[in-house]
Amino acid sequence: MPVSNFTQDELDEIYAFAVDLGRKAGDMLMERVEQRISGGEQKFEEKDSSVDIVTQTDEDVEVFIRSAIQSKYPEHKFLGEETYAKGQSRDYLITEQPTWCIDPLDGTVNYTHIFPMFCVSIGFIVQHRPIIGVIYAPFQDQLFSACPGRGAWLNEKRQLPLIRNPIPPMPANAPSQCIFSCEWGKDRRDIPDGNMHRKIESFMNMAAELGSRDGKGGMVHGMRSLGSATLDLAYTAMGSFDIWWEGGCWEWDVAAGIAILLEAGGLVTTANPPENPDTAPIQDLSLGSRLYLAVRPAGPSETETGRESQERTVREVWRRVRHLSYNRPGA
Amino acid sequence: MPVSNFTQDELDEIYAFAVDLGRKAGDMLMERVEQRISGGEQKFEEKDSSVDIVTQTDEDVEVFIRSAIQSKYPEHKFLGEETYAKGQSRDYLITEQPTWCIDPLDGTVNYTHIFPMFCVSIGFIVQHRPIIGVIYAPFQDQLFSACPGRGAWLNEKRQLPLIRNPIPPMPANAPSQCIFSCEWGKDRRDIPDGNMHRKIESFMNMAAELGSRDGKGGMVHGMRSLGSATLDLAYTAMGSFDIWWEGGCWEWDVAAGIAILLEAGGLVTTANPPENPDTAPIQDLSLGSRLYLAVRPAGPSETETGRESQERTVREVWRRVRHLSYNRPGA
């Protein structure tokens, strides 16, 4: 286990520190919202496209989090979304070393519009595996957190997944009866067979009535798009979303959410279907891949283990989705 | 004005009654969630498709609301989502009379999965115009409400829209920079040029980069799907969503949300573009139409009134969306 270098006491201390940090950072996000509500609009600086607005808040909160971590754990590496953006490098910089990977503000578009689905995301990674995660969405005061040996929690009082007496298996006819979480993302280029078209084709397969679209129609129970990869993962850990499929986000968007989902009992693998989706091994998460497929925690049924029902669901999704192409710069 | 039959005191009394009723009904929804979390899963009765599950809760909450209204205001008409469903009639039953139009549980799919975007929706309609609305989403304790002469509110303490010093105009290049709220809905039939395909084509036009798709690319800031028409309208009233476009929902899904959006200063018209979207008059809301296009509250810019910027946005949406076909049974 990658956590073997740390004692439970050490993990607990890091966890408590991260929870405290998440709350304080979220409060900073909310303070700025209150300023905007009471005092009028502030100006936003546009980044590379109209879908990617970075605010001064984003940078300030990252500085706050980085300072706190570097002061408390100078021996740990630190990577933040703003650090990456400023350095003009989007290489995968995570190593075997214990690393904090944070997004000071996930759901930036939601934040600028004051749609409550924005949050701070703090992940702690050991040997490429996110093990501690804290996500705080301050507008609705929802704190998601997890630590090895301690479980995953909403507001430190409801254990995740919410329904756990018992944890339901994945539906026998998944993806039917599943809530499918997906995002349109920022790549809106209208290129034939480009990422946007491949995404939409995949969405339509998941949505369409059973048996339609050459047998690919999945008739999912609902299609949801929140505009925050971090919160998509949090709601998957909660059991609210059954499946999340996404390409194009970065490790700082998913590190904390993956830690929480894995601790809750979820599964994460690649969004891109292998050549034979029915039999190919279900690869473990590749954190730098920018391609993620997540399935909620699942318990056993009379005929399957929870893991078997999750893997069956992964294969059913793979049968319905297209390959996406999100290289890293220079990769 | 349709409210002229009521004094402000009468409206205030109805409003206070509706807020209290909304909170109590929402608490009932949440009690059942707590039972499911602590005591395991309950069984759900399936309605006409896997996307439409009705729970016992739904019926119980409607009975509670109906009894309270009929006891307090026996002279008012009452129409509830479950009343319609049970009667096998989905005719438009609203008349000139003061009518309560309620949905005991909007976002049923979210509710069954315990995704927090579910709510109770209580609308009070006079002469076909929703004038008082209460929406309560108990999981995140968000109460949206409005009454003529009293404004629109979140949790009775934040006036809507949230940013109002001043209220921003619609963006000069709308729908760019707008959050576009839309739902996949329940009609997933894979019919060429059917509603699902027309919706997706419209979604793609709104999402795609500017100038693409024969000039229809709208490059909206974000695409959001929550699975609750009621909350889509509430977040539009809040100013979080700029545009909501939907076909297929019913008057009980939208009555309360429209009352709140209109009181906040929003605009509601038809989803279906007229023959000449550039010059056709912007028709007033038709409550029974099952076709809705809503634009958030907007203030003046240096060159336009708020209403002008809303109407400009309506026309830009109409240029990009397809006609939808949702008849009423028998119509």
UniProtKB/TrEMBL annotation, chains A, B:
It catalyses: a myo-inositol phosphate + H2O = myo-inositol + phosphate. GO terms for molecular function: inositol monophosphate 1-phosphatase activity; metal ion binding. Its cofactor is Mg(2+). It holds the Pfam family Inositol_P. It comes from the Eukaryota. Its EC number is 3.1.3.25. One of its GO terms (biological process) is inositol metabolic process. Pathway: Polyol metabolism; myo-inositol biosynthesis; myo-inositol from D-glucose 6-phosphate: step 2/2. Keywords: Hydrolase, Magnesium, Metal-binding, Quinate metabolism. Mg(2+) binds at residues 81, 103, 105-106, 253. Coiled coil: none annotated. It is an enzyme of class 3 (hydrolase). Belongs to the inositol monophosphatase superfamily. This is Inositol-1-monophosphatase. The lineage of its organism: Eukaryota, Fungi, Dikarya, Ascomycota, Pezizomycotina.
